[in-house]
Amino acid sequence: MTEATRRTPGTPCWVSLMVHGLDGTQEFYNALFGWEFLPGPQHLGPYVRALLDGEEVAGIGQLPPDRHLPIAWTPYLATDDADETAETIRCCGGTVAVGPLDAGEAGRLALCSDPVGAVFGIWQAEAHHGTAMAGPPGTPVWNELLTYETSSVAKFYRSIFGYEVEPVVSADFDFATLHLDDRPVASLHGVGNALPRERGAHWMTYFEVEDTDGAARLVAELGGHVLKPPREGTAGRQALVTDPEGAVFTLVRSVDH
Q: Which InterPro entries match (predicted)?
């Protein structure tokens, strides 16, 4: 990627997963999405970058054996200054759990959570600008925050990144889209008590697939689980699934594909 592809601060620019079994996880995503893998950077232990047609699309790292963190896909939001953004996150009621720290020559990162506990990363790009393409099958195409209610958490994210927040006005649907530069970049979905207790508020990554039904069947064959079978949604035909270690994500065949 070139300098010209620098992301506007607040734009989701990368997704990363920390797991216990790096080899088994690579086999699963290679079979599901056709990802190939390259090592590095090893700033937090063993780490690989997933490539599709030679372009970087995601990262997977290995947790130390004694760390029992939830296994989850984590979106990273672009920033021009990780240290300043981390300080703003703290001031606005969020938590900075890891960093800011340098990831070799690639950039500078921090792992944070919002006031309700949803985990996300911030990424100050140097050599590595993030996901090189989004849209083709096997790439992350959307990130949505599942939370209790959207209005207070929308204020938090707007304070950090200056999003324009566009709520859906509806008595029975609590939903808002985050915009930057007049384009949608992520969404917030308030689901109240329907949030899974064991996971609480969390960010959800959507991965594009050619065929949602076929991909969901493949997930099950490869040792993952289908939590919600394929159905038509606003974004397209989607299914909620987990990988063998329990990382939850959404398969989607987008409407415009």
A: Anthracycline_SecMetBiosynth, Glyas_Bleomycin-R_OHBP_Dase, Glyoxalase_6, VOC_core
pLDDT at 12 over 70: yes
Tell me the domain boundaries of the chain. 3-125, 140-254
3-125 with 140-254: one CATH topology? Answer: yes
Cα radius of gyration (the chain) = 17
pLDDT digits (tens, 9 = 90+) for 164-196: 999 987 878 999 999 999 999 999 999 999 998
User: What are the residues whose beta carbons fall under 8 Å from the beta carbon of 174, sequence distance 6 or more?
Assistant: 149, 150, 168, 189, 190, 191, 192
Query: What are residue 219's phi and psi, to 5 degrees?
Result: -55, -50
pTM: 0.94
Name the nearest CA neighbour of 11 among 147, 170, 160: 160
